[in-house]
What we know:
alpha+beta
Amino acid sequence: MTAPLYREVQRYRDLPPFTLLVVVGALFGWLLVVWVGLLGRPLGQMTLPTWLALAIGLPLGIILPLAYGRLAMTTEVFADRLVVVNGMSARVNLRHADVAAVTVRTDDIRGDYNQRNIGEVSNTRIAYVVAASQGVQLEMRDSRLILIGSNDPAALAAALAAARGEPAPAAPPPAAASIGS
Length: 181
């Protein structure tokens, strides 16, 4: 397998809501394991069998933090394709021949697309984003728009241009400075 021309990893642990959910879930899981499983005490008015407390608590206490440390979205540009591997659910292989245009998006992309991490083939606008608020928009030959979130959209666009044999895209104009700043 050839080495990618460009590689970017966006970790889910960079998202504050995801971090909060993992911490709360892991604490609840270990509470079940220790309080009900080891100490044999009821959880409020509910008496849980030990096996059920362990069956619920261990996945929350062990698997959830492990997933938290490992989940990431990886974007790789190869000579013939772009690969986006979303650690949650998706793997997308986009051939460069299927891409009609590449646009660098340095504006806030979060409100422009249906903000999901799971894409469907039937959708005409699909976004693959973890924590970035900028990205590269791909216009496919079948008129679909695919947005790839990136912390460095200019570098991603340059790698795509190099892989497609095109000149590097011009840098977008800088955002206008507000009056009084």
